[in-house]
Amino acid sequence: MELSSALSPLSGELASLIPHAARSILIVDRGDSALAGTLSQRASASVVVVAPDAVGEVAAPLDAIVINAELFRGNAIVSTLQSLKSIMADRGYLIWIQAGPSGAGDAAAAEEAAKWIGDAGLIPYLVRELEMQGQNGQATAGACGFVITAVRPEYNPLTHARDLFAQGYAARSFEILNLIPDALLQNPTVRAQVAAERMLCLLSWDRTADPSGRLRRFFQSQVHFFEAISCAPDLHLPYICQSEFWRRIGDPGAACRVLKLIQSRVPIDEVNQRIEVLAQAEVSLPYEPDPPVWRPTVPHLPRLLFILPQRPHYGLDILFDGLCAVLGDQNVTDFPWKPTLHGEAPVELADYPCCFNRSGAPISEQEVVRLLQDGAFDAVLFGDLDRSLPRGLAQRVCQAACGVPLFIVDQQDDPMDNFRETLDFLGVASAQGYFKREKLLCHDYGPHTVSLPFGYPESRIPESLPVSRTHPLFWAGHRIYGSRRPILEHVEALLGQDFNRRYSQIEYSEVIRNAQIGLNLCGYGFDTVRYWELPAHGCMLLSEHLPIHIPHPFEDGRHAVYFDDLEHLTDRLQYFLAHTDEARTIAEAGRVHLREHHTSSARASQMLGVIQNVFLRGETWPPRR
User: Fold this and answer.
1) Closest by alpha carbon to 191, among 182, 204, 202, 201?
2) Is residue 317 pLDDT above 60, yes or no?
3) Helix axis angle, 566-578 relative to 580-597, nearest 10°?
């Protein structure tokens, strides 16, 4: 089997395993290679395809050698690999690709290949499973495989990446760092250092790259920032890099808060100087008013088709519930059918706050297409940014919806502008609007984008609350993402409290109902369920500032309490623990404000208000001041 026939649909995926630092590339295969075509598009790449018996004619050294394992059989495999090793550069990669029918890619075959590679004097560096795909992008039954990337025993990826960075190749350095296998990152200090150096590469890359990709690089850096400080919270480099990214995307306030976090723990002059400069920066944030009021036109309420992923998805699922509450179950149809929205609550999701019991019935692909063509829906909401719906099916639905207003509902954890990418996936040129959860305050997403953060389902808000609360401060959860580890360690030291305790669902509900103050810290996304859950249960919300737009926001000192840094957190926490009456007053006001503006039905009404008063009138959002 030739690579051209076996792996053509995966040529892009396989190319991602070959770093751009590899300029001389050999592909050992028979016939033309789709992978060679993909790699040849790289600037300065030299790609040669030869048959196994012509390997000796290739000039050395080679940065990458890709071999079709199907062509290597018998006792000569190890000697052939040794020959290939002799023409491989010191920092070269040998990529062994094995694909075929069921059984060809099993664990035993991978172990056997790894042994041959080891016997040839190389070491398996990365092992990756492959799933063959057909032309429709779906997995092909019975077709599987794996890829083993091998290197010399003395290969050091960190030194390789640092040398590339010193030569001015930040993007290539980042790529080498990203290819480091997890097995080499088990030491937390090493993992943090690698994450920090990835951030440094992204920052250097961003200084010369197209600004249109800045938000994506910012988000990539943010993910590595979370990893770095969860492993080594006193390492300065990740804080400095992420602060600079915040400054570059236009939020010096967030940049300053990041630096103050490390300065409170391990102060140094460089960080203090950066804080002083940021404190003087002028801030100009894009304007977005609160959404217009939705006024239903009875008897004709809008009929919506809501395309959702199958997995539990808090933001989308509570929005579906809110739309049903506002419009009636009969006017909101989910596709594909999602059982957890219609009474099915699996044991593992029994207490998850996005299982509902709305009426309805499953509809087939053919039926949804017919209903769209017959004008049964007034708008289509596309929320499956996971792309769990096959692309072909998604495009058929959109084609059938021609003339029906389309809205993208982005409830993902990232702040990136996913609008155009989603339109490309759907095969449409435009949509009437884009509703986004993680809509950064500092970024202009264009006139089609409206903020739509989480809310809290009315059915989960307790009707009665205890008269007195016995638990001073509530926190539960992991400390992997956001700035959780350094902040929680600070509060634990301050109060002598351990936040590592895990609660059963019954205990969790009881503790949160009896807490005077609830602590909210950003997670993988800035918007969290906890941010809404705490005031819903009558706790005083004590939170980091969220750098995203929220309609009808909680007011600091009235509906909630916010802190800027660890010193500020200490002052506010100690004050309200000592002044419980004031904390109770703020908590009660926050609960009232949430019930008015931040329930699932309130969020649904806000969406409908924008659709009715802005997008369907052909106007832009936000309106001009």
Assistant:
1) 182
2) yes
3) 110
Q: Which residues pair with 450 in a beta bridge?
A: 435
Tens digits of residue pLDDT in 172-197: 999 999 999 999 999 999 999 999 99
For 266, which DSSP code?
S
* Amino acid at the residue 365: E
Cα–Cα distance for residue pair 568/119, rounded to 1 Å:
60
Domains of the chain: 3-155 (3.40.50.150), 158-279 (1.25.40.10), 304-455 (3.40.50), 462-598 (3.40.50.2000)
DSSP symbol at 70: G
- CA separation, residue 104 to residues 98, 114, 136 (Å): 7, 14, 23
| Among candidate residues 130, 179, 147, the one with its CA nearest the CA of residue 9 | 130
- Spell out the residues 6+ positions from residue 445 whose beta carbon is closer than 8 angstroms to its own: 417, 419, 434, 436, 439
Tens digit of each residue's pLDDT (9 = 90 or more) over 90-119: 999 999 998 765 344 468 888 999 999 999
Strands 139-151 and 123-133: antiparallel
The pair of three-digit structure tokens given for residue 414, joined into one six-digit string: 């990232």
Please write the tens of the pLDDT for every residue from 20-70.
999 999 998 876 678 888 898 888 889 999 888 887 778 889 999 999 888
At 136 the pLDDT is 47
